[in-house]
Structures are given as C-alpha cells and as structure tokens.
Write a structure and sequence with these properties.
Blueprint (H helix, E strand, L loop, with lengths): L1 E5 L6 E5 L5 H11 L3 E6 L3 H13 L3 E6 L7 H12 L3 E6 L15 H29 L2 E8 L10 H21 L4 E8 L9 H5 L1 H10 L10 H13 L8 E4 L11
Parallel strand pairs: 2-3, 2-5, 3-4, 5-6, 6-7, 7-8
Antiparallel strand pairs: 1-4
Length: about 260
C-alpha cells in the first residue's frame, strides 16, 4: 500500500473507494465542502490522486490519499483499521468501484475478466462490509453508498461479466440492508442509468475526439449526459436522509434518456 497525507486530519471521515475524475472525485469534493475529512482511494494514477487531494486542500478541506488495489488480500481490512486508528471514525463509505471489463460476447470473455469483475463488484464490497459494518453497528449509525449501473437491472448479450457482477452487487446491498438497516446503518444502491460525463471513464472508452463530439451534441448545455458534480449532490442528500425515509435504491439518468425498463 502506498500512502501519502496532505494537510491536517479532521472528523468525521468519508471514505471514497474509486475516487477518479468522475463521480468518485466529485463526491469527495462535495463531502469535503460539508465538513468531512476525505480518505480517497484509487487503484492507479498516483498523480491524479495527489491532484485530487491538493484540489480539496486548496478549497479549504482536508484529505488523505491511498493508492491501493482492493482485490489484494487484506488491503481493505488494513485500510479500515488504519483510518479508524490514525485518522478518525468512518461515518460514510462510498463504494464507487466499476467492474466493466468491456462489451464482449461469451467467447470473447475470459475467465480472468469474469473473475476480476466479480472480485471488484462483489468480493470487495463484501470484505468492506465485513470490516466496517461491525464498527458502525457499535456506533448505531453509518452510511454506505454503493455506485452501480444499468447492468445491475438487466443483462445484455455482451455483458456476461458486467451484468452478473453488478446484479450480484445489487443483491448484496439488499442482503446487507436486511441485516443492518434496523441497526442504524443506511445502505443505498445507486443505479447510474446513463452515460456519465467523465474524462477517465467515458472519455477513455470513446477516445478524446468522440468524447468531445458526444459532449457537444448530447452533453454540455444539452444536459444529456449525467454530470458528476450533480450526482454528488444526490449522494450527499442520501447521507442526510432521516431514517424514517431512507432510500435504499435509486436510479439516476439524464432527463432525455429512456429508462432501463423501457429498453
């Protein structure tokens, strides 16, 4: 594990697993503005991680960055223990790790890709829950916000890995809710049912030219792409909900997109 810290520590703590330039990074910025110390994690791109920490610090917040691979043994468990011991109690966890291995037919999908998708989407979340839920249960409070995708709701012929991984993520969230909701832990499964205007996800898939063209024709002032900074507002709203009206599953899409159940 590579760890670096910039700035002072503060409480409460919001842990974001998968803090890229899209949803994860914007959620981190939002919670920072609301007074949280951010623990932000990425698997790769140490420069991007440091830049996000610096951005948060430059805007008056505080953050700690971790460059980790969550599917490796004991990484999540060690991370939770490290934060709880050396930084502060974790009040919110955002599990924002994607498990997209590409749009591939069955014969194109390797065993390694399928297994990787399951590990990121399900095993990582399971290990996180095993580590953080008992801690939150003792405090009788806590929030776990889980980013998901349209693939959690339906399978397509070229999504054997992604649909099964995200479908499992959805069922795991439901099972966790069934056990821990009454103990004060709010777990929300958040379906992003549309393309997110993010350079390090959609931008990488399409390439710079197609990405910019899509932004100009569908996004930007057209509001046809999901804007990460506005998604962050929804995540914070979920955190702030009173327990008498908790949302356990929500789907987000641009106003002009057709919902997943009509496709």
């Amino acid at each position: 594990m590579v760890k670096f810290t910039l700035g002072k520590k503060m409480k409460p703590v919001c842990l974001v697993l998968g803090a890229g330039a899209g949803i994860g990074g914007n959620v981190a910025k939002k919670f920072s503005k609301e007074g949280f110390h951010l623990c932000i994690c990425r698997r790769t791109d140490e420069k991007g991680l440091k830049n996000l920490v610096k951005n948060i610090e430059d805007n008056g917040g505080s953050a700690t960055g971790f460059l980790i691979d969550i599917i490796k043994d004991n990484v999540i468990e060690d991370l939770i223990e490290n934060i709880e011991t050396n930084i502060g109690p974790i009040d919110v966890v955002v599990y924002n790790l994607g498990a997209q291995a590409g749009m591939k037919l069955l014969h194109e999908t390797t065993l390694k890709e399928f297994e990787w998708g399951w590990k990121v989407a399900n095993l990582g979340l399971f290990r996180l829950a095993k580590s953080i839920c008992p801690i939150m249960e003792k405090r009788k409070k806590g929030t776990i916000l889980v980013t998901s995708a349209t693939a959690a709701m339906r399978g397509n012929k070229n999504q054997h890995s992604h649909a099964s991984a995200m479908g499992g993520r959805r069922m795991l969230c439901q099972s966790l809710n069934a056990e821990f909701s009454e103990k004060g832990i709010h777990i929300a499964h958040i379906v992003i049912d549309g393309m997110v205007d993010a350079p390090d996800t959609l931008g990488k898939v399409l390439g710079p030219e197609l990405y910019q063209k899509l932004r100009e024709t569908k996004g930007m002032e057209n509001d046809g792409l999901v804007l990460p900074e506005n998604v962050a507002d929804t995540y914070f709203h979920l955190y702030k909900q009173h327990r008498s009206t908790w949302t356990h599953e929500i789907d987000i899409r641009a106003f002009s997109d057709m919902a997943w159940w009509n496709h």
